[in-house]
Every structure is written in C-alpha cells, then in structure tokens.
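Putative cysteine ligase BshC
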Amino acid sequence: MQLEQIHSPVTNKLLEDYWSEHANIHSFFEYKYNVESFGKRMAYLKNRSYRSKELSQVIRSYMERYGLSEKANHYLNELEQGAVVVVGGQQAGLLTGPLYSIHKAISVILLAEQQRKALNTPVVPVFWIAGEDHDIEEINHTYTMVNGEIKKRGYSERSKLKKMASTTELNGEALQQFIVNVFKDFGETQYTEGLLKNVLQHASNSKTFTDFFTLLMNDLFEKHGLLMLDATFEPFRQYEKMYFAQLIERNEQIAKGVVAQEQKLAQAGYSMPIEATEQNANLFYIREGERFLLERQKNFFKNSAASVKFSKEELLAFASESPQNLSNNVVTRPLMQEMALPVLAFVGGPGELAYWATLKPAFETLQLQMPIFAPRLSMTLITRQVETLLKQKELTVTDVFTNKNEQKMAQFVESLKDDRVNNAIEQMKMQLHRQYEELTDYLRSENYHREDLLEKNKNYHERQFNYLKTKLEKQNIDKHETEIRHYKTIQASLYPNNQYQERFYNPYLFLNTYGESLIDDLLELPMGISDQHNLISL
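Tokens:
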C-alpha cells in the first residue's frame, strides 16, 4: 500500500476557501483549522461541565449489543473520566454506505490520535449514527462495477412511510439476496468466501438498517476503538431531555438566526444549502417510527400531513416525558451534539461544511460555541489492476479527474472508424438522393402529387443506410472491446460519473480485492486532515 498526496483539480469553492488563510468564509465559523485553535477550544471545554459518566454509560449500553472491544472499553473509561471527543457521523447505509462513511470514521480516529498527543490529554473518537434520518431511498442501495460499467444494486423492499432507519425493519431474505448479488458483481477472489460469510452473518443478526450498519462498522474498526452511538437510542433520548427543552424554548430565535446567516452566506457568493425559513421549527415529531417535520405558526407547532398541532407547553412535555417522540433536523442536530458531547472537533464533508456555515448564530442563541470544523479526509483507492491500466494508457489519476481518460477513449473509438465503409455508404446515400430528386421532378411534371409518399419512402431507405452504418461500426468496435473496456474500467473505478469513487462504492468492493486488513492498513498511513487528496495504491 502506497500513499501519494495531490492537490485535486476537483474543487469545491466553499471548501477551497475554508482552507485559505484569509478568505471571508472564516467569519462564519468560530475557529480556523490550525494548531492554535485546538488549544483554545480545549481551554473552552475545560471551563464547561458535561455529564461524562452518564454519557459513557449510554454509549456503553448501546455498543454492548454489538460487541465492545478492549480499546473501545478503554475509551469509554476515559470518557467517563472527562475525556473530550472528536465526532463525525453519517446515515446508516447498506454495507456501510458510500466510502465517505469509512473516510469519516478514519478521519475521526486519526484526528483524535493526533490531538491526544498534541494536547497531552485523552481524546476519543465517536461516530454519531444518524439513525433518525428517514430518507430510506438514499441508503437502500449501492453501486458495483461490471466490465467497466457502473451498476446500481438496490435492496428490494420499499415503504411509503417516512420511517427512520432505526425503526425500519429489514426483510432478511431480501437483504441476503441484495448482498449475494453485490458480491457476485465483485467477482471471486481469495477473500470473497470469508468476507461474504461474515457480512451475511451480520445481516442475519440485524433487525434494522442501523443494526446492520453498526455491526459492520464495529467489525471494520474493532481494533481502533471507534465509539458509536445511534441518535435514536432511547437511553440517549432520555439523556437529551433538557437539551430538547432548550431547543424548544429558543426555537424562534434559532430559526431567525439561521435564516439571516444563510442570506449572508448567499451574499458572500455561496449557495443556500438549507433554504431555511423562520417558520421551520427544525424539529421532527415521531409517531410509530415515522417522522413529521414541525412548523411553527404563532404559538403552535404543526404538521398538516400528520394532522398534529402542539402548543409550546405540550412540546416541552414531550421533551420531559417522552423525548423519543422528538427528533432533530440538519439545523438542530449539530446543536444537540454540542450540548450532549464534549466536542473538540467535528469531522464533516463538503456538504456539512456548507450547512454548518449557517449555524453560528444558532449556537450563540444557546450560549454555545461552535466546535472546530475538520474537513474529512478525501481519498481515492487504486487497485493493482487499475494501476496497471493507467501505466498502459500513459495516464495519471489527475488525468482521469480532468477527463483526459474519456478524451483518449473517444479518440481511440474515432480512430476505429473505417473511412472506406463510411464513404461508400455516404456515396450510396448521395446517389439515392439524386435518384429521388429525378423521380420527384418527373412525378410533378406528370401531376402524380405523391411527394409525401416519396419522402416517406426516401426516409425509410435513409434509416436503413444509417442502421447499416451503425451495425458495421459496432462490429468494428466490438473487435477492440477489450481495449475500450480498459478505458471504461479506469473511469468507472477512479471517477465514476465524473465524481469521486467515495460517493459511489462501498468498502467491500475493495476489501474483496485487497483483504480484510484494508481498514487497519489505511489507518497506518501517514495521513492527516488537510487540503490534500490522498491517492492510495493498494
């Protein structure tokens, strides 16, 4: 395994500005990402009190169901004694979801280790599972690669209800079929049998999307003690009671602050990631596992689809007596995280960076300070097969990111065209046109008046010529199918649909090629949070 770091030509304006020392975007955050900020943030956390013992017990009770490693147990003991955390999170995708879920977890672990040494204090890694998210269509599929083509593989069960991932029960038979189909696409290697058996075993022990996600993540990161917590875990909801009350009490001020900040963000030349409104309560009401976004109207919190209407007092009663009936959204989740955990830094992707840029006034409304935002590691995994193909085609990964691979493939396909065949067909078409023109002139002179029939007949023959040309071109291209598939494999592996591979493939595609030590070996590489893109040759 080898590491190369590049400044990626694939840019995100907000993220690029965040890494710039003097960009205006820093006014939207509490801290810049630098050494000095971590010292300041740590000093801030030391002056605040957290319910560390209770929090540790909650996380322990969640993780014990899935298996608690020796290192995770050590981190929980440290957390109980007042350790701070580096936290990141993601939805509970099938087979852990896209690779960026794994990249976030790796980023959290590496940053926690780095700051433990730098600050000479216990810093533990925490992964916040967004089990309360209800967009199942976003997490119920993955992508594979077959003969250089990207293939979408979906879990077949569907629900019309907006149920949370943590309350959506999995159909065991459908899940098993999904996994088997995905692994068939991967192809057989020396690792396939054991890997498939392990994944199927975890699937059989999973009732929900979140169960399956937690079991797999816990398996992959067992040696590294990654602590995990599902946002919907009922003991955690009980722990959050007083924090939900604060979100309800200051609800209107939070919404107004986010709206104003998002407008400032747009004026500064960035997008409006949330499209917030002052009426949005930024809280969901949960009924039978289904989520309904609440809107604030005068003194009430309403959702028309659910036919519910609560007074502020009724919502506060929910917070006190049944907090499991409440859930956060994109605005209140970071606020809840800050109140519930001693957060040294939050690890997020470019999308999260955008909406966090709208939240500073919301933190201030609750007399909180935004933690340090740490952009997650960005990486591309390069298999030996793809590395060999790159050398054969005299291409670099940067070339692929800048569309040079697709250009070379297009040039190659163009070079395969048989000019003699094409010229012959074109001459036949031209001859046909002349003969139809002669026939048209004659018919007009004799008053046949059947130009419409003649045109229709001519168009039919033109289609036949085009069909012949297409078929002959395809036959010629098929003779070079292997060469073309090589270009497609490079593209599909490194930059599928002109996006980073981390947005498409799950880690098991690469575990199947490299082996089960992949995650452990990645964590041994000298990587750290930075503006560099990591190219990793497996």
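The longest helix spans residues 451-478.
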